[in-house]
Design brief:
Blueprint (H helix, E strand, L loop, with lengths): L6 E6 L7 H9 L4 E4 L8 E5 L2 E5 L11 E4 L4 E2 L1 H13 L8 E4 L3 E2 L2 H12 L13 H9 L12 H23 L6 H15 L3 E2 L1 H10 L4 E4 L25 H6 L8 E7 L2 E3 L12 H10 L11 E3 L1 E2 H11 L3 E5 L9 E10 L2 E3 L6 H6 L1 E8 L16 H14 L2 E6 L7 E3 L2
Parallel strand pairs: 1-10, 1-11, 2-5, 2-10, 5-7, 6-8, 7-9, 11-15, 14-16, 15-19
Antiparallel strand pairs: 3-4, 12-13, 16-17, 16-18, 19-20
C-alpha cells in the first residue's frame, strides 16, 4: 500500500495489538489528515522512531509527522488522559496548534464511569470481561442510553452542571448499594471539568465538516481504528469484546463520513496471534513456546503492561475479519519473531464435536471448545531484521506468507521485520 487513495483505513484483523500504530505511522507520511474513529484511552499504539519509543493512546500516530490529527465523534475521551498525552507530545518538541482537533460530538469519560468499570470488573469473579477499567464500557453504555455528556456540553455551563448532578446522583446510588463505594461529589466534578474544557477549547471543532471537507477537496485522509476486528461489539467474540465497532463498519458512524467516501481498507495482522484479557482463543499456546513468543515479541500491553496470550495464526477468525471489513490488502507484522522456530503452524479449520468447520462460530462457548486443525510449515533460522526486499526473505518465510495470502484471498503488501518504522518491507 505505497500510495493512499483520497481516503483509506487501517484496521486490526485479530484481537488488537497487531502493530497498527507502526503501519499508520508509515502511511501518515503521505496523509494530510489522520482520523481516529472509535475506542478510547484503553488503546495503545506503539511507534519506534530511531530507537525511541512513542506510546499513543488517544492521539493518532500521524502527530509524529505533519498530518493534521482528528479525534472523531466515535471516540470516548478521557479529558485528563488527553491533556496529559498532549503535554508529553509538547515535551518532545512537537507543536499541537492547528495539528490536533477534537470532535464536539465525542462523548466524555466521566469519573463515575471509571469507578463503575473498576467496581464491576473487580467483583465479577468468573464473569470478568478483562477490561482495562478505564471507564470505556460504561461511557459507551451511557451514550446508548442517552445519558452521556458530549464535548459540546462542556461549553453550556448550566446544562452541563444540571446533567452532572443528575447523573452523579444516579451513579452514587449504584456505587453505594452494589459496591459499598464512597459517593462522588458532583460539584467537584463540575469545577474540575470546566478547567479541562477551558484548556481544550482551542482544539474543539465540528469534525464532521472538517473531515468531509478534506475528502471533498481531494486531500488524503487516513482513518485509524483501535483494538481489532475480533473485539468488535457486533462481529467479535461477544461478550469478550470492546464497546464499539472496531472494524471498518465503525468509520461512518464514528466520523460522519458516508461509506461511499471510504476508499481502500488495509488490514493489519501479526504473523502469529495474541489476545489480552478474557475470552476464547482457539490457537493459544499455554506452554513454553507461548512464553517464548511473548518474550521475543515483547507481548505486553502498551496501555496496561498486561502479558498477552500468544498462539499460532488463526486463519478462520482472520478470514471472518477480512469478510466483515472488505479488506483489500494486508500488512503482516512481527514476522521476525518467528525466526528460529523449527516449525510454524497455521489454523485452517476447527474441529468441534466430531465435525470440521472453516467458519467462526457465533457462540463463544462453542468457539472456546473448538480445536484448531493446523497446516504445518517448515521454519527458518535467518535473522530478518536487515531484509529490505520481499524477494530476499528466506524461502520458508515466503512459502508461509504465500499460503496466508491464498487462504485469506488478500494480497500481503507490507511485511514488518522489526520494531523501527524503517524495518518494513513494501511489496510491489
Amino acid at each position: 500500500m505505497s500510495k493512499l487513495n483520497t481516503s483509506s483505513c487501517v484496521v486490526g484483523v485479530q484481537w488488537g495489538d497487531e502493530g497498527k500504530g507502526k503501519i499508520v505511522d508509515i502511511l501518515s507520511q503521505k496523509a494530510d489528515l489522520v482520523v481516529r474513529f472509535q475506542g478510547g484511552g484503553n488503546a495503545g499504539h506503539t511507534v519506534v522512531v530511531d530507537g525511541e519509543k512513542h506510546v499513543l493512546h488517544l492521539i493518532p500516530s500521524g502527530i509524529l509527522h505533519k498530518s493534521v490529527c482528528v479525534i472523531a465523534n466515535g471516540v470516548v475521551v478521557d479529558l485528563i488522559q488527553l491533556l496529559d498525552e498532549m503535554e508529553e507530545i509538547r515535551k518532545r518538541g512537537i507543536k499541537l496548534d492547528g495539528r490536533i482537533f477534537l470532535s464536539d460530538r465525542a462523548h466524555v469519560v466521566m469519573p463515575y464511569h471509571k469507578f463503575l468499570d473498576k467496581c464491576s470488573e473487580t467483583t465479577a469473579g468468573n464473569g470478568k470481561i478483562g477490561t482495562t477499567q478505564r471507564g470505556i464500557g460504561p461511557c459507551y453504555a451511557d451514550k446508548a442510553a442517552r445519558k452521556g455528556l458530549r464535548v459540546a456540553d462542556l461549553y453550556n455551563e448550566e446544562f452541563f452542571k444540571e446533567r452532572v448532578f443528575a447523573f452523579t446522583a444516579e451513579k452514587n446510588k449504584i456505587l453505594q448499594a452494589l459496591y459499598g463505594a464512597e459517593p462522588l461529589d458532583p460539584q467537584r466534578i463540575v469545577d474540575e471539568y470546566r478547567g479541562y474544557a477551558q484548556k481544550l477549547q482551542p482544539f474543539v471543532t465540528d469534525a464532521v465538516e472538517l473531515v468531509n471537507g478534506a475528502i471533498d477537496k481531494g486531500r488524503r485522509v487516513l482513518f485509524e481504528g483501535a483494538q481489532g476486528s475480533l473485539l468488535d461489539i457486533d462481529f467479535g467474540t461477544y461478550p469478550f469484546v470492546t464497546s464499539s465497532n472496531s472494524d471498518a463498519c465503525g468509520i461512518s458512524s464514528g466520523t460522519g463520513v458516508p461509506p461511499k467516501k471510504i476508499g481502500k481498507i488495509l488490514g493489519v495482522a501479526k504473523a502469529y496471534c495474541t489476545r489480552v484479557g478474557e475470552g476464547p482463543f482457539p490457537t493459544e499456546l499455554t506452554d513454553d513456546l507461548g512464553q517464548k513468543l511473548r518474550e521475543i515479541g515483547g507481548e505486553y500491553g502498551a496501555t496496561t503492561g498486561r502479558p498477552r496470550r500468544c498462539g499460532w495464526f488463526d486463519g478462520v477468525t482472520s478470514r471472518h475479519s477480512v469478510q466483515i471489513n472488505g479488506i483489500d490488502e494486508v500488512a503482516i507484522t512481527k514476522l521476525d519473531v518467528l525466526s528460529g522456530l523449527d516449525e510454524i503452524k497455521f489454523a485452517v479449520a476447527y474441529q468441534h464435536n466430531g465435525s470440521k468447520t472453516e467458519r467462526m462460530p457465533t457462540d463463544t462457548k462453542v468457539l472456546a471448545q473448538c480445536r484448531p486443525v493446523y497446516k504445518t510449515f517448515k521454519g527458518w533460522k535467518e535473522d530478518l531484521s536487515k531484509v529490505k526486499k520481499y524477494e530476499d526473505l528466506p524461502k520458508a518465510a515466503k512459502i508461509y506468507l504465500n499460503f496466508l495470502e491464498r487462504y485469506l484471498k488478500v494480497k500481503v503488501t507490507m511485511v514488518s521485520v522489526g520494531k523501527d518504522r524503517e524495518k518494513t518491507i513494501h511489496r510491489k
